Amino acid sequence: MSYICQECHETKYGCCNFTGEPNSIEIGISIPEAIIIQKAIGLPISDFLERDMINPLLVDSIARSIHPNFKQIFYKNIRYKLKTVDNKCIFLTDQGCQLPRNIRPHYCNLYPFWLMPDEDRLQVLINPDCLAQTRVINIVELLKLFGINRNDIINEFYALQDKLKEHVEFIDSGKDIIQ
Ligand code: SF4
Ligand code: SF4
Q1: Contact (CB, 8 A) for 109 and 102
Q2: pLDDT in tens, 131-175
């Protein structure tokens, strides 16, 4: 976890906490990503993953205002999401995320960045509770604060896009991963 995120978790909101408030949208994880975590940690998927339904109007609104890939993330209005304990992600510990970065959900590695629809331009998912966003004035400084560059985000985003294709196919096949 970057020092700014560490500070955010200690003093402020921290995006691995889910308040349940209306503007706090728990993002979904794709099935292939969940399978990668499951293989790495060796626990049954139902120990860390749950499923619910999300309001289709909300899905439409996010897909329109941020990126169409939210239609795939919440395909058929189904949301697979990491379980929480006391409103915190099940993988969050006092030392930060217990998952190595290479098996974390892509949204964890992307946040607070996303790509613009149909372009390789970055956008920031505006969140007044994100400490990093309160410390800088533009996207270049924000990337610097996290110690990453534009290509890191683009590569992560395209890896997510690949997983989302598999996610949609998996759901269309009628299979499920949570018993
Ligand atoms: S998987 Fe890790 S980085 Fe992602 S929400 Fe959970 S604790 Fe945070
Ligand atoms: S990305 Fe922003 S909201 Fe999330 S922990 Fe870091 S500073 Fe806080």
Answers
A1: no
A2: 999 999 899 999 999 999 999 999 999 999 999 999 999 999 998
Provide the residue range defining the domain that includes 78: 3-172
- Angle between helices 150-172 and 31-41 in degrees, nearest 10: 100
If one counts the domains in the chain, the total is 1
| 177 occurs within a structural domain | no
CA distances (Å), 75 to each of 3, 68, 108, 110, in order?
Answer: 34, 11, 19, 20
Below-70 pLDDT ranges, the chain: 1, 12, 19-25
Cα-to-centroid distance, 139 and ligand 2 (Å): 14
Does residue 8's CB lie within 6 angstroms of at least one atom of ligand 2? yes
Is residue 84 domain-resident? yes
Q: Give the number of whichever ligand sits closest to the CA of residue 109.
A: 1
Q: Does some domain include residue 179? A: no
